Amino acid sequence: MAAAPGAGAGGDSAEAGRAPRLPPRSLPAPPLHTVEMHTGGEPLRVIPRLEAAEAAVAASGLSLLALRRHMAAAHDHVRRVLMHEPRGHRGMYGALVVRGGVAVGDADLAALFLHGAGYSAMCGHAVLALGRFALDYGLVAAPCCPETAVRLRCPCGVVTAFVPWDGRRSGNPVRFHSVPAFAAATGGARDGDVPIDVPGHGKVVVDIGYGGTFYAFLSAEQLGLDVCSSKTRDLVSAASAVTEAVKKQFQLHHPESEDLAFLYGTILTDGKDAFSEEPTTNICVFADEQVDRCPTGSGVTARIALQYHKGLIQLNQSRTFRSSTTGSLFTGKAVKEAKFGDYNAVVVEVSGEAFYTGTATFTMEEEDPLKYGFFFK
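RESULT FIELD:
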């Protein structure tokens, strides 16, 4: 057998057969280290630490929403490097972990959520994964068996994940309790469905729900599609058209911050909103036509809030939600009523399974014209 490149004749050197260490030359920025996970098939690229974010929090005492604006304005290349090709892909999703300072407050940790087009206010699949990450990487001071509560500050507020813990490592399923979720629609239609005109599809009726971020909901049948059997490309195009129409025809309002008053995407469903023990299927299209591979944690939260608002489910009545892309399942239920500004809201519990897929180190060479990534449409 031929000796490995760089091995000595005798092959007894400690360096024999060892590949050259990376990086091979000076780089414009330090390497970026990540922990790779997925929840129901939806990826999560966790950035455990970022000096630029920690320095901004320490120097200026930024809140998490202020840090979100700062990162977008001054350090957006980090998002582009890790979410875009060639290191990421159109479906990549990320979470920047923040520790300490006013950005975290009385929580165990905070997180900024990243995707191909920018930054989200809430991400349920990321919360489920970060609950495990926080325990396994020692970010919770005193974890307890058989389940530990992990308080995570998101841009939309504090959510609590409940994570199985055996004293050594985390497990599944993980569940979380949401920020107050509610049925929301402007134009005086808060208590009813919202008709909108979608170019190429005519008038359709949507619901608008908030589960940490805002979504439009409608059955795919209204668009002449089937969420279970239509081509994903057709579902994505139709959902994106709905999103753009809603953005133009409705002004959203958030009770606490106008930074959060934006429509994140559209969720097409099978129309099965009335209570059933059978799963109901949906597909979430968010940001710049990005497709969620899981049932969407914040989407499940918003959809439960809508169903409760319409009297279709009761408190603690659990429903199962299925992703049309992977078949993965989340469960959700409204666990208590709440007030959020002028809205009658509910706290929703969402449950799912998150898994580790690896770790990675990413570098950028100065000479690389695509070192900060590219977005392929």
